[in-house]
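anyone seen this seq b4? input:
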Amino acid sequence: MNILIIAEKRNAAQRIAKILSEEKVKVVRRGREVFYEFKKGNNKYFVVPLRGHILELDYSNEFKRWSLENLQALVTAEPKKIIKEKGIVKILRELVKNVDMVIIATDYDREGELIGVEALSVLNFKGRVKRAKFSALTREEILRAFENLVDINYALASAAEARQHIDLAWGASLTRFITLASGRRGKEFLSVGRVQSPTLALIVEREKEIEDFVPKPYWNILGKFQKRMIFWGEHEGNPFWERENGEKILKKIKDVNYGTVLEFEDKEKKIPPPIPFNTTEFLSEATKLGFSAARAMRIAEDLYMAGYISYPRTDNTVYPRSLNVNAILKSLENSKFGNEVKELEKERRRYPARGKKESRDHPPIVPVRGGNLEGEKGVIYELIVRRFLATLAPDAVYHEKTARIDVEGEIFIASGKELESLGWFKYYKYASFKETKLPRLSKGDKIKVREIIMEEKKTKPPARYTQSSLIKEMERLNLGTKSTRAEIIQKLFERGYIRGNPIRPTRMGMALIETLQKNDVEVIKPEMTAKLEKDMDKIENGLLKKEDVIGESKNMLLGVLKNLNATSVGERMRESMRYRIGECPGGGDLIYLERKRLVICEKDDERKFFNLPKTGHIEILDKKCPVCGLPLIKIIRKGQSPEIRCMDPKCEYNKKKDVIGKCPKCGGDLVIRQSKNGKRFIGCSNYPQCDVTYPLPQKGKIIPTGEICPYCGAPLIIIRRRGRKDWKICPNIDCEYNRRKKNERGG
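predicted toks r here
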């Protein structure tokens, strides 16, 4: 019998083929495509990798031209599935002619099921079709999956297809409307999306809360006490919202020398281990280590494909009984975690920690084989390993001490926490326990009062979202899915709507949401998106039809478009992207056109223009240029240190900062420049007459030395990077100076 196996990606196909064939597999190439072939018993197998979706949902050619006039028709039009991977489809159609059975072996979730069903749709295969369902690309898991094949879950695929149709309709129509109404073209389009826009709205609303926040002062009274050691206590009436009330108490007791212990408690308490990793918990922890959510997800997918961890897209926080915990621990014994695994075996808890979410599709994210990985993959792998170990470790135990101290009728509360047993903290180095010392006291003890103070504080605005907290808020509001949330946040960064971590909206991001809010566009409201997510769950469970959910969503969208006014939307967007940033040195207004990266000095009928750098994020600073008096700007480029410049590109302030020495060819100034794609290099100021250029490392600060290279005459420079030694080089990479320096270092 001939059997065709369809996998989602090349790595997965290769691992499946090697496992099933016991490494006796033949690689067959067709141009840039490959598939795998092997025999097992009387069966011949062909394993074909896809590249995710081989079909693309899109509108017909009549809608290629963007127009405000055809948006209603765009919404009601039926998009078509277009083949985007013709080479793969050709291979599938060639092989399927001679096979008796097709097995779908894509990732087991909505998207993976749809990818498999799409592949079937181009084959017109009438034979037997089955599904291999697995959660890890390990030998045991793959063999089990292929020995226990199941049926295709068409309802699961329908839920994913409904999402495709709905997202395309909302995204295409609203993106076109906002972009055209704002007078933008080409690459300057303003993207609007069903999940992207309500997520951006959360960030904008938080920023407005912070901007509108008015700090309110309050006062705390603190006591400094001594009994074998110095410790602090807080007045039980804290905080005091009226200064006078606090001052009355302070005046009453500030000169009192002793207090009396009224009560003392010493309780043993436990801190249970963290719950197993689902996608949200994993991304939340990974972003705390400095990874973007999207980057962490990509690394986790690579680890899954390489057979190191289980499937990283899961809602589950409860280990199923089928998970062989002992086998996982055994596989880790020969890795760098071996000693900790042996220690854990001595104190392992009876039942692993568990969360509230339990599902049957995939287990929580766990390591499935040991490994000593390096780099970013090593960091993410270690995070997953340590979380797994922590869920099996005992509770941490600490003592919580509390004392109530009477100072002339005023009660102070002193508390302390002291760790008795590390428990799971021993294995999970990403969490820590903060101890506060408090001596053992007894009722009736006299306590020395060293000092009574009253400190003024102010209420603080809500914190900006981090990627970690934003992902958790998206999950709470049912915005997106475990598979899409990291990607959505990344899109907001890439489209220039947000920046930084903690996350701030850009002017463009705020303008877009304010415009949508003013026009009461439903897409920015989480409730609408959450309802659609629930509807897609119902499609998956067979309670709703795909066509009904798509139809309801399109009717809602038609109502939104009907109420939008292109003129008011356009005016609002243009107004928000042009704003006053200060005063010109000689009088007049400085106007910043963020979209065009242009600053205009408007004075009476005169105008002066300052073109800002075309790459990097720009912040207008409150500081003035010491040379010309214009505002300074900060330019933030990925991988480079922030750069402070005068907004006038011709100002002497910039020229002095940019010059690193003289050109050895013509004697002109060698200056640091930025290419169109944001890469920095050294070029001659006499360009195009002089074509001398030198590449530069993209990270680190460039410091001129004033020295000339003895071999080629170029100016020597120092590259300074945080945590590393200064690196003195000739910018001419092939110069003898650099070769000799390398030899001196022994490399």
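The radius of gyration is 32 Å. Residues 577-650 form one domain. kinda curious what u guys think
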